[in-house]
Design brief:
This protein has one helix and three strands. By secondary structure, it is an alpha+beta fold. It has one domain. It is globular. The two termini are 24 Å apart.
């Protein structure tokens, strides 16, 4: 169980990659509508090859979403 309002950091597993790619795609979609972040669309998308199990950290939140920190 997560602490109220807190996060838990843990090593990423191969099962986390699809969720991380989905979060990245959602963020890229939002960023391209903000003038200061237009460059994000020109950068490479997050792919499976950018994550290695045990080398990336996943932050679990009370909402069940994860973020990756490679």
């Amino acid at each position: 169980m997560l602490p109220a309002g807190g996060i838990i950091l843990r090593p990423a597993t191969p099962d986390d990659i699809a969720a991380m790619m989905e979060i990245s795609a959602e963020a890229r979609s939002r960023y391209k509508t903000i003038a200061a972040y237009e460059y994000v669309e020109a950068t490479p998308a997050v792919t499976e090859g950018r994550f290695r199990a045990g080398r990336s950290v996943v932050a679990e939140t009370p909402r069940g979403r994860s973020s990756a920190l490679p």
